[in-house]
Specification:
Elements lengths: L4 H10 L3 H4 L19 H10 L6 E2 L4 H11 L9 E6 L14 E5 L6 H6 L4 E3 L4 H9 L4 E5 H15 L5 H4 L3 H5 L2 H10 L3 E5 L3 H13 L5 E4 L5 H6 L2 E5 L3 H34 L5 H36 L6 H5 L2 E3 L5 H40 L6 H18 L20 H26 L19 H21 L13 H19 L3 H6 L12 H5 L12 H16 L1 H28 L1
Length: about 600
């Protein structure tokens, strides 16, 4: 029982040093235990790091075990000689710069410790003045650093004592958890954690403190865990992902994958051997060829049977995963994956970026459309511009379908190094919307200026509250405003590097092509029944009336001497030169080209 005096004596004995415990022992043998890595862990880590994501390991294993596992999966690049462990100096010495170096990084080689490492120059003091040097070593891949939970606690205690001179850390706070959560300790840890690649021998309180330190240092953290000891860190991270841990099913999947890989490798070797043999000598006769084929049939069928059994085992394992009960980690984390692989972290980043980019482009499209509609309802409405019922219905259906197809974009399989805009209110998003609207405003007002001269001043439909009647002004402004809406979908579709290109989102791509086709058919009046269906009036086939250019009819039609008057006269001269329909098509093409070029320039500027 726990109150047995003999148990207390045994416990105190085990707490003594290894030198006292490991005495008078008889060697019986070596027990080798192996915990195989997950099949795709190294590939996922490699893909994450290729996407400019910093991957670290936080584990309860010993530092040597953790460093070796990190090296196998690709978290640690440097060799073992260039892998260092943060240690606490007992002598509290000074480094060459004169700063007090309570802590120092020593090579992760237990053959070189203490004074030997210091004498050989392999020790790297951890001081504020030495931080730039340590950061340079990490960024160049010349060193990797590890830290244990005990040293992390000592560093926190040292930081608290430095912040409150004359007082002990334990006198200020009650326990280790309180020490790690102290503001001075958080500040010290936030300077340390960006350097560390492997956090070993970490208890749950240490894991939580590490994630909190990353958050305090300005990083966005994603924590992946599978056990109860990860609950605190999962809750502390910006994104928590829990996976399930089922060793039996993992072994079943691993064995099936190994069998499939072995069969494929054997077939590949035999194909190479056969090709090499065929290059050296030809077959002697057709009979010998038929005998060789007959002899290989049983071997091929046995391999097919092996692959079939392995695939069946994988399918059974996938089905069994659906019935595994979720642990406490799934309660603490917002995301749970019924997989044993860490691939869910990469998938979450890809899907999250794709969703963020999709929502930003939807808000940009809505913003541009709202500004265009505001222009129609204010400035153009005063000129009597209205839309018919069939026009409004058609535009509403088209816009709804395009919005639906925008959300069909899929993320790319490769994680990009670029970061998408973090908010709808980012500078890039707002600037893009303003530039697009400026181009659309110029195009809409240009069409309005050149169409206004064709309107009968005594037409009752030009009264703001009058009935709708198709005329040149209504038709031209309807075509250019619909084009602005379609252009918003075209230029604001983000595509690479966060999601598939527009040409691969075939539903949206074909729909936009169809919209452009219909708009230009209506603008050129190639198919008049379509114009009648859309309540569009016939467009002028000649230039503007001469009396409008001479300014002899009405005060409102007289030639103006200001800047707008100059632009107005220039547009009318161009219409007389090329014709109304051609000028309308040119303005529509210019609007599309300018907004596309402006959006491309803005994206390039902010990516750089």
């Amino acid at each position: 029982g726990p109150n047995n005096p003999s148990n207390h004596g045994l416990l105190s004995k085990w707490k003594s040093s290894r030198a006292n415990v490991e005495q008078k022992l008889t060697f019986a043998g070596l027990l080798v235990m192996d915990s195989p890595l997950k099949a795709d862990s190294a590939r996922v880590v490699r893909e994450l790091r290729a996407g400019d994501q910093n991957v670290v390991m936080v584990t309860g294993d010993a530092v040597l075990t953790a460093a070796e596992v990190a090296r196998r999966v690709g978290i640690v690049d440097a060799s073992q000689e260039c892998t260092y462990e943060l240690c606490c100096r007992e002598d509290d010495g000074k480094d060459l710069s004169g700063d007090r170096a309570k802590f120092a990084f020593r090579p992760l080689d237990h053959g070189v410790v203490g004074e030997e490492a210091k004498a050989e120059g392999k020790e790297l003091p951890y001081t504020p003045s030495n931080l730039p040097k340590l950061e340079a070593l990490v960024s160049k891949g010349m060193a990797n650093f590890c830290v244990t939970g005990d040293v992390l606690t000592k560093l926190a205690i040292h930081a608290v004592e430095q912040a409150t001179p004359g007082k002990s850390a334990l006198a200020i706070v009650a326990d280790d958890r309180a020490v790690l959560n102290h503001p001075a300790a958080k500040s010290a840890l936030s300077n340390l954690v960006p350097l560390i690649a492997v956090f070993a021998r970490h208890a749950p309180r240490h894991k939580e403190a590490v994630v909190a330190a990353f958050n305090a240092s300005g990083h966005h953290t994603l924590m992946c865990g599978d056990g109860t000891n990860d609950v605190g860190a999962l809750k502390q991270a910006h994104v928590g992902v829990s996976i399930i841990s089922v060793p039996d099913l993992e072994a079943k999947q691993r064995n099936a994958n190994d069998t499939i890989s072995a069969v494929k490798a054997q077939e590949k070797r035999e194909r190479k051997k056969k090709a090499k043999k065929n290059n050296k000598e030809s077959l002697s006769s057709s009979s010998s060829s038929s005998r060789s084929k007959t002899s290989k049939k049983p071997k091929r069928s046995s391999r097919e049977e092996q692959i079939k059994r392995s695939l069946q085992a994988l399918a059974e394992a996938e089905d069994e995963l659906n019935f595994v009960s979720l642990g406490n980690a799934s309660v603490a984390s917002p995301f749970t994956s019924r997989k044993t692989s860490v691939r869910c972290c990469k998938d979450l980043l890809q899907q999250g970026r794709c969703t963020l980019v999709t929502m930003i482009q939807i808000y940009k499209i809505l913003g541009v459309q709202c500004l265009v509609n505001a222009l129609v309802l204010t400035k153009l409405h005063q000129k009597g511009v209205k839309q018919g019922d069939r026009q409004l219905t058609a535009v509403g259906i088209v816009v709804s379908v395009l919005f639906l197809f925008v959300t069909r974009g899929k993320p790319l399989p490769k994680l990009a190094t670029q970061k998408p805009p973090s908010s709808v209110l980012s500078t890039e998003t707002l600037l893009s919307m303003m530039v697009q609207f400026a181009v659309h405003f110029a195009a809409i007002m240009s069409v309005t200026f050149m169409s206004d001269v064709y309107v009968d001043p005594y037409d009752p439909s030009i009264v703001p509250d009058g009935p709708f009647h198709p005329n040149t002004l209504n038709t031209a402004t309807f075509l250019i405003t619909v084009l602005a809406s379609v252009n918003a979908f075209l230029v604001n579709y983000r595509g690479r590097p966060f999601m598939e290109d527009l040409v691969h989102n075939k539903l949206l791509f074909r729909s936009i092509q169809g919209c452009y086709f219909v708009l230009f058919v209506c603008a050129t009046e190639v198919f008049p029944p379509l114009n009648q269906l859309m309540q569009l009036s016939p467009l002028p086939s000649s230039g503007p009336p001469l009396f409008h250019l001479d300014g002899v009819v009405g005060e409102g039609s007289a030639v103006r001497s200001d800047v707008f008057g100059t632009v107005h006269d220039t547009l009318l001269q161009a219409v007389r030169l090329v014709g109304f329909r051609t000028m309308l098509c040119l303005i529509m093409c210019l609007d599309t080209a300018l907004v596309a070029m402006a959006e491309k320039c803005i994206r390039s500027a902010f990516e750089d």
